[in-house]
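Why do we care about 3D structure at all? Because function follows from shape, and shape follows, mostly, from sequence. That is the central idea of this module. The next example makes it concrete: a single protein chain, its amino acid sequence, and then its structure expressed as tokens.
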Amino acid sequence: MKTLLKIVLVFCVALAASAGASADSLTLVNGGSDVMGGVYVGPYNFQGTLGGQTGTFQLICDDFTHDVYSGESWNVLDSSFPALTNAKFAPASSYEEVGWLTQQMFQNLSNSQTVGEIQWAIWDIFDATASSNDPYGSLTSSEDTQINYWLGQAAANYASGNYSDLEVYTPVSGSQNPVADGEPQEYIGLTPTPEPGAFLLVGIGLCFIGVFRRYFVPKQQSGCY
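And the structure:
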């Protein structure tokens, strides 16, 4: 009986795992609608599969040195805080600054000016010359001031932050389609919510075990003999 119960449990867990075991990949839909300094800023819109969940996602670029194009697709490796196992850049503290800024951006999506300033601050963390040597346009002195403000805020506050709600998605080199588009950018975003189906399978399995034990497993006698 115990062996059968173990088999049922393992089977249910395997089903749940398979429900979320598909490879992570992204396809860029568009760069959103906010522009600052001649480039799209703020969350880009994607379709794909992240953490076993297929759907649409809004992710923020942390990599100014590469380009992506609408319709381009690629595979990604995900990294959670604080390990950041597959992240592209270093040090980890810089990702925490990016994480802090990302959280601020998601709280200010209705303000396109703030979104743009935070985006450029994020790019400046891994490329200190991004905002000062923008090859696509120009930033105003007021925007430069606010970008530096957000960089200062990130440096002052990142250490006390909690980034467990964020994931970093690093492109797998050579996986992009079309290949000629070159290496895609790295992105950061909110951790996808696990698919309800995976939890449902485990729940069904546990219920089955409970019913099985109640009606088919004989009760043990206790007492003195």
